[in-house]
Amino acid sequence: MEHNSYTMGKLVIDSWRSNKAQQLTFVVTQDCNLRCKYCYMIDKNDKNVMSFDVAQRIVDYFVDNKEELFSTDYVILDFIGGEPLLEVALIDKIIDYFILSTYRKKSKWFGRFRIMVQSNGVLVDSPEVQRFLKKNKNLVSLGITIDGTEIKHDLQRIFPNGKGSYAIVEKNYKMAVQQGYTDSTKVTFGSEDLRYLKESIIHLWSMGIENVPANVVYEDVWKEGDDIVYYEQLISLADYIVDNELWDTYNTAFFSDSIGFKTLDENLMNPICGTGNMYCVDANGDIYNCVRFMSYSLNGKENKKIGDIYRGVDRDRIRPLRMLLPKYLSSQKCLDCKINQNCLYCAGNNYDMSDNGSMFYRATAICKMFQAQVKANNYYWARLYNEHGILRNVSYKQEYFMYFILSSDSVNYCKFKEPVVREIIKPEDLLKGLAYAYDNFYQPVFVHSSDSLQWLNDLMNSKEYGDALTAELKRHIIRHIVKYDGNTQNRDTIYVMDESTGKPKEHLQSPVILNISVEKIDGLAKMVKEILPFTSRININIYDLNKDLSISQYEQQLQILVELLYEYLSKGEIREIRQITDRIFSKKMNNCFAGEKNVTFAPDGKFYTCPAFYFDKAIHIDMEKSNQLTYISNSPACDNCDAFQCERCVYKSIAGTGELNIPTEIQCKVSHLERKYSRKLLEKLKQSKIPGYDSFNVPEMDGDDPIEKLVKENKPKKICY
User: Fold this and answer.
1) Per-residue pLDDT for 719 more than 70?
2) What is the mean pLDDT of residues 620-627?
3) Calpha distance 162→176 (Å, rounded)
4) Among 380, 608, 675, 720, which residue has the least CB neighbours within 10 Å?
5) Which region holds residue 676: left if phi is over 0, alpha if psi is between -120 and 50, else beta?
6) Residues forming a β-bridge with 26
7) What mean pLDDT value characterizes the chain?
8) How far apart are CA 305 and CA 318, in angstroms?
9) Would you put residue 231 in left (φ > 0), alpha (ψ -120 to 50) or beta?
10) Coil, strand, or helix at residue 326?
């Protein structure tokens, strides 16, 4: 089946000048005509209303100091409250003064600004507001919050007397849409209204709002079981979208192609929001990074102002804001989380909830809620892929896999011992394992025997397990490892080949694992030559790797493979052999990560670090207690080695050295030999000036054993007593 790419969650909402415009926010009032229950502005009042004199001073200060404070020639004048339209006359005067000031001072901002007003919508139909909107027709963007169905909206967005605001807001919203001032809304869910999530999103779509940004509140308002309600609502919404084939018509941020992954290390150094690059000014002329650092948005913490319009911005107060990076805010648990990609937070709320009074804190009140969203998101994408062949339109890769050994006579794709007695996974254990994989964010990989595909098919058609297994598989994207038999390939299948399988009969869309024994290593290149025309990638598996391997013979084979790869790559045909090409392109270890990221579920219903530990009954380890030793960071040799293509087999390590984290000598010799030929291939490509390889580097390395190198570099010092 052809796989189409699709994106959901990247909302198509017009953003003026995209990332080229910076924001200047005027808090024109802290008063509001509504009392929304989930609002983070907890200390609204009618005292702090901006005067025009202060507003003029704000404009003058920022126009005069534009070059120092802003890095762009485009600015968005953002007006908030409270309810900013309570002061629409003031806003109108501020805009007039801004235009006049930028003209007189020949500022680059003249004619390069837009107006943004975020409103609750109650006053939009008033004559004063209508005059303002008409006057600034092509400059103003009006955000009106309509929160879903009438029931949901009126649960939260109420007047001081407790009456709901939906009827007024809906009427005004439709009018503003017709007038061309808005076409979107912003939906927020709290604990009380979660049960209306599905119908609220559908209701907004039915109003013509095709793109619905929505989120749950960041504050600690969540009760036991809210994550379950959230999950069930999202699952129901996902079913509604897929069953009615609406994924190309509507959009909601609850389903995103970019969540559910482990974030890249470099992304931990990117700020989540605009901290350090925005300015927000209140009625006193005090300057903040954003409204969430002002007193009326904080629950007991002191405000975090960064200056005022009279003495200017204190550059030292901005420095911490610019360092509010995920790496330095997050606990180790957050950093290690499998799904921390795009797990968002509010910097102001972090500060408000911190127990040490510092901004360098990560609030985790929505942790369970985010996990629920990711599970539902994975379900949504699994249905789209399994039923319609639609892939996520992202470059992120799944890093966490759970291998299901369906039968003890499954295909050997690594370094397994032969089983003594055949053991087949029990159907109830299979269901239990799949549920565990779903709840713990692993992608299942089925390792098949010669008859397991038929066994699975029979199981799905059985009365006892069919419905349950079908429902479980519906929410997963399953990968398969099978021995190649020449049959038509299935998608998401990795084929295992050896000298008995023969060369492929057709082009394969997936990688090939090529099994070879130590004693047949001199035939490796011949086998690769036969297979490589039919696949873009081969992973070589010397399944009985031991000291009997002839290093010189293996080196001869690698030399031939380098020439073979060069033939393809010099013609622009992409081909990969893991043992050679991965070191060129990888910036960190790229191996099976058994124990560290991946886990195995065996036919006996138990978990293992990797399949080899199930097949080798002679090795007994407590997986839970010893798991940390499988981490690269806890392996002295591997943590200080840059043979990134190394298979780093923890099973071979403990079988050979007695320790999970210390590799055998032959493992290191083999991986460094492969690294050597990676370097030779890269040098050959560079010398021939083949495009695309100039930025890559495989440095020359002294020695082939990282342990010997470490010992030499860190000779023990003589200790005197």
Assistant:
1) no
2) 89
3) 25
4) 720
5) alpha
6) 79, 281
7) 92
8) 9
9) alpha
10) helix
From residue 496, how far is each of 156, 158, 524, 557 by CA, in Å? 57, 63, 15, 20
The secondary structure of 241-273 as a DSSP string is HHHTT-TTT-EETTS-TT-SSPPPGGGGGS-SS
Q: What is the enclosing helix (H) or strand (E) of 206?
A: helix 197-206
Q: Does residue 596 register a pLDDT over 90?
A: yes
| Residue length of the chain | 721
> With 70 as the cut, is the pLDDT of residue 19 above it?
no
**Beta strand ranges found along 406-524 (DSSP E):** 443-447, 479-483, 493-497, 512-516
Question: What are 43's two structure tokens?
Answer: 């200390």
- How far from 546 is each of 298, 508, 599, 653, CA to CA, in Å? 64, 31, 24, 11
The distance from CA 262 to its chain's CA centroid, rounded to whole angstroms, is 6
pLDDT tens-place string over residues 523-550: 999 999 999 999 999 999 999 999 999 9
Give the span between the Cα atoms of 470 and 447, in whole angstroms: 18
Each residue's pLDDT tens digit, 65-88:
999 999 889 999 999 999 999 999
**Is it the case that residue 108 has pLDDT exceeding 80?**
yes
Which one-letter DSSP state was computed for residue 516?
A: E
Q: What kind and span of H or E run contains 116?
A: strand 113-119
> For 232-246, what is each residue's pLDDT tens digit?
999 999 999 999 999
C-alpha distance from residue 372 to each of 278, 366, 441 (Å): 32, 10, 11
Show the beta-strand stretches assigned E in 151-275.
187-189, 211-212, 214-216, 251-252
SS3 per residue for 519-583: HHHHHHHHHHHHHHHHCCEEEEEECCCCCCCCHHHHHHHHHHHHHHHHHHHHCCCCCEEHHHHHH
* Confidence check: pLDDT of 706 > 80: no
For every residue of 626-640, DSSP letters joined together read HGGGGSGGG-HHHHT
Average pLDDT over residues 483-509: 88
What is the reported pLDDT for 44? 82
R_g (Cα) of the chain, nearest Å: 31
Q: How far apart are CA 72 and CA 638, in angstroms?
A: 45
The answer to whether the CB of 29 falls within 8 A of the CB of 276 is no
